[in-house]
Write a structure and sequence with these properties.
With about 110 residues, this protein is mainly α. Helices cover about 60% and strands about 10% of the residues. It has a single domain, classed as Orthogonal Bundle (Arc Repressor Mutant, subunit A). A three-stranded antiparallel β-sheet has the order 1-3-2. Helix 1 packs across helix 2, helix 1 packs across helix 3 and helix 1 packs across helix 5. The longest helix is centred in the first third of the chain and has 30 residues.
């Protein structure tokens, strides 16, 4: 049991680091600091984050992003027009104020 817990703790920093890289890429490529901007997770953002769609790391990153309300998936964001740089993705998300705050904290901490 403690071995399982240790593996989870080791993976958690990797997930958070990938999440920050994904949020940064989405902000740089699409949101441009705009709260509630519609973003689509495309190939460029996935590569910048170092994740592969459908992988366990991707699933964990997306779980964290939605649980902490950094990205909100739903009808409201899906109806908006996504930027052309993000083609080839499954859906659009709202890039929230919390995502921008997370990026500010990460920058302040030098992450």
């Amino acid at each position: 049991m403690s071995e399982e817990r240790g593996e989870q703790e080791i993976r958690e920093p990797k997930v958070l680091h990938a999440l920050i890289r994904l949020l940064q890429a989405l902000n740089d490529n699409q949101a441009h600091g705009e709260e509630d901007a519609t973003v689509v997770i495309g190939t460029a953002e996935l590569q910048a984050a170092g994740v592969v769609r459908g992988s366990p790391l991707y699933d964990k990153v997306m779980q964290h992003a939605q649980e902490h309300r950094f990205l909100i998936y739903g009808e409201e964001s899906a109806t908006a027009q996504a930027p052309s740089s993000a083609t080839g993705d499954l859906g659009s998300y709202k890039f929230t104020h919390d995502a921008l705050e997370m990026l500010r904290w990460a920058d302040a901490l030098g992450v």
